[in-house]
Specification:
Layout lengths: L7 H21 L6 E3 L4 H12 L10 H7 L5 E3 H21 L13 H11 L13 E2 L5 H21 L12 H18 L3 E2 L1 H21 L3 H21 L1
Antiparallel strand pairs: 1-2, 3-4
């Protein structure tokens, strides 16, 4: 991990900016599917630009499509994705603060959330996914399918971030820790496949089915609704992608 070399004063200034942006977002009480311009949180954008200029934006562990939007004042993101990204950034800055001897007394649990999820996945790997392989389809550049893949990839990035950054205890969350780790594994596997020049509809159908099932569970439990909304969009766009491949 790259050492950002920020002074304690710089860290405090960035923390204040992130806190102001977070407070503004949370006070607005925006619906889960509301896409907000990054101009709504200019203090946070300034922090992400500083991170990018110092080569430490990857330290946050965010997928590229989300990270690229965070530093782009002209971009738009769903409000819950903004909140999740800012929460993760705040935890990272608090860890830097504690390393400087500041009073970052209780870095939030998102700091090590990725490691915890990986440990759970290693201890309880997802069951083998049975997929009826139909065919591998080449996706031409500039095609309708290629356009949808870009959209699906961004939605998957957002869903992974939301799945990783829940603050709820396991008994209140929509998923158990094991189910969460397995969902993330499936979503990230699909992301990797979509980067290839050929796609397989069978795997896409399985991912859409899992996304829809989890979305229905979040709606039933009335918790993690932002994740559920994101997964609803994932399932819908994947089905559109499959249709475009025919």
């Amino acid at each position: 991990m790259i050492d950002p070399g920020f002074s304690l004063e710089e860290i405090h200034k960035m923390l204040n900016g992130i806190e102001r942006s977070l407070s503004r977002l949370k006070a607005a009480n925006l619906p889960p599917d509301k896409r907000m311009p990054m101009t709504y949180i200019p203090e946070a954008v300034s922090v992400f630009v500083d991170f990018d200029m110092n080569g430490v934006l990857p330290n946050l562990g965010l997928n590229p499509s989300v990270a690229n939007k965070l530093k782009n004042i002209d971009a738009r993101l769903r409000a819950p994705v903004m909140i999740a990204a800012l929460g993760r950034t705040r935890s990272y800055l608090r860890r830097l603060e504690s390393e400087h001897g500041g009073d970052g007394s209780s870095p939030e649990h998102e700091v090590n959330q990725d490691h915890l999820i990986q440990e759970i996945a290693d201890a309880h790997p997802p069951q083998p996914i049975q997929v009826w392989t139909e065919q591998w389809v080449y996706v031409k550049r500039g095609s309708r399918a290629k356009e949808i893949i870009v959209d699906v990839s961004e939605l998957l990035d957002e869903a992974v971030l939301l799945a990783k950054t829940t603050n709820l205890p396991e008994d209140q969350a929509a998923l158990t820790d094991i189910e969460r780790a397995q969902l993330i594994a499936i979503l990230e596997t699909t992301l990797s496949v979509l980067k290839a020049p050929m796609v397989e509809p069978g795997l896409l159908k399985k991912t859409a089915r899992v996304a829809k099932e989890v979305a229905q569970r979040t709606a039933k439990k009335k918790t993690e609704e932002a994740l559920g909304t994101g997964l609803e969009h994932v399932a819908k766009r994947i089905l559109e992608l499959i249709a475009s491949l025919v």
